[in-house]
Design a protein that fits this description.
Layout (H helix, E strand, L loop, with lengths): L1 E5 L4 E5 L4 H18 L4 E3 L5 H13 L7 E5 L4 H14 L1 E6 L10 H10 L2 E3 L8 E5 L5 E4 L5 H10 L7 E5 L6 H13 L4 E5 L5 E5 L9 E3 L4 H12 L3 E5 L11 H12 L8 E5 L7 H9 L4 E5 L11 H12 L2 E4 L4 E4 L5 E3 L2 E3 L4 H11 L2 E3 L1 E4 L11 H7 L3 E5 L3
Parallel strand pairs: 2-13, 3-12, 4-5, 8-9, 14-15, 18-20, 19-21
Antiparallel strand pairs: 1-21, 1-22, 5-7, 6-7, 9-11, 10-11, 15-17, 16-17
């Protein structure tokens, strides 16, 4: 789907969709409880985006006890699905082949390869890709040492899996933990389904998670709260002059992306200033999903903004550092792309637009482009706008309902 986006303002009330991160976790826990008890938990307020559908369908296959059967676990383009469920599958035991599409095969699974090598769990993968990933065997308890500067999804995956196996386990984080709020979300969700995990620093000063083996997932009723990472797009529109009221967020949420509220407050201090030479440095190691929309706001706000510790964004649905910098620069903004950071020079007068840009098959790039287009002098053609279905299927419907001008084009 290709859209013509025209300058406009948004006006109205938005109820943000449920948190995709929490929905993944709730769906996994509810199915593991069903496997243990035979009963179905009531998980409410879940939007079946492509990513959540992938996790749901995968869990339906995983909990069926057929150890002799090789099960294909299709993960779509969802990094959460593949990284959460490989150790879950290993804890359940059996033969599995994990498959996916898009760039998912480029997103590394090194931590699991290392664990499987140590525990002599058999696996196969192509030479130049991580998928399809075939595995058979069963995960054993023990000490799992994981670097903290790689994806927190590895840690969450082990936290889902290790309570189900015999014997106690420890996950030791050997470097500073990035994206810790996502691990906190996992621990919080496990607690709601009867699984206990504790944490503390060891004698070496490393953060450790302690997991007792032989635990049983219990049924729970759970309502997924609103998603701060998706709300961030509407918050950005409001900060840039639209009249948007946002509903459905939990004020005391454990979501790390709540930080968008503080970031916008800092940007608002600059709005209207004739001159601002002070750099605003944002460390995004804990909030990587916010980078595309933060870049849009920064590019439209006076002063220089530096986004640092962002290297992991290069292995998302797109290379997001490249994708967002290319997008903003084509619109007429000023973004310099470095190895693990972005330097953004604000152009508060707005963008010129009048160009064609790509969504890079990345839902967050597409939605960020939609907000940027609100401040473009000339129309923008967004190619591949349908990719929002990965996380926010009705984004364009809501955008138009608020007054956003987005016209579907037939490009022949």
């Amino acid at each position: 789907m290709n859209l013509r986006l025209e300058r406009s303002g948004l006006n109205g009330k938005v109820t943000v969709p449920p948190s995709k991160s929490m929905a993944h976790r709730a769906v996994i826990c509810s199915y593991l409880a069903k496997m243990a008890t035979g009963e179905v938990s009531r998980v409410e307020n879940v939007v079946l985006s492509k990513d959540i559908t992938a996790t749901k369908n995968a869990m339906e296959k995983l909990i069926i006890p057929r150890p002799e059967e090789k099960k294909e676990i299709f993960c779509g383009e969802s990094g959460s699905t593949v990284r959460f469920l490989i150790p879950v599958a290993a804890a359940i035991g059996g033969k599995y082949i994990f498959t996916g599409e898009g760039r998912l095969g480029e997103r590394p699974l090194d931590a699991y390869k290392d664990i499987f090598d140590k525990q002599r769990i058999y696996y196969e993968k192509p030479v130049s890709s991580w998928l399809p990933f075939y595995m058979e065997g069963r995960l054993k308890n023990g000490l799992f040492q994981i670097e903290g500067n790689i994806s927190s999804q590895y840690i969450s995956g082990l936290l889902f899996a290790l309570p189900m196996i015999d014997g106690d386990s420890v996950i030791e984080i050997t470097t500073d933990l990035q994206s810790k709020p996502y691990v906190d979300m996992t621990v919080n969700m496990l607690g709601k389904f009867g699984i206990k995990v504790s944490s503390d620093n060891n004698d070496a000063g490393n953060l450790c998670y302690f997991i007792s083996g032989g635990q049983t997932y219990k049924n729970a009723d759970y309502k997924v709260e609103g998603d701060y990472s998706q709300a961030a797009f509407w918050m950005a529109a409001k900060a840039l002059g639209s009249q948007v009221t946002i509903d459905g967020l939990k004020a005391d949420s454990v979501q790390g992306d709540r930080e968008i509220e503080n970031i916008i407050k800092e940007f608002e201090k600059r709005t209207g200033l004739k001159e601002n030479t002070q750099e605003y440095i944002i460390d995004v190691s804990q909030i990587p999903d916010l980078v595309p929309i933060i870049t849009v706001i920064a590019a439209l706000t006076p002063g220089v903004t530096i986004i640092k510790n962002a290297a992991r964004l290069r292995i998302k649905e797109s290379d997001r550092l490249y994708a967002i910098s290319q997008t903003i620069n084509k619109l007429g903004g000023k973004v310099k792309e470095l190895k693990d950071s972005l330097i953004i020079e604000g152009t508060p007068g707005g963008f010129k637009g009048g160009t064609e840009i790509s969504a890079h098959n990345d839902h967050r790039i597409a939605m960020s482009a939609a907000i940027a287009a609100l401040k473009c002098e000339y129309p923008v053609i967004l190619m591949g706008a349908e990719c929002v279905s990965k996380s926010y299927p009705d984004f364009w419907e809501i955008y138009r309902g608020l007054g956003g001008l987005a016209y579907e084009l037939d490009m022949g």
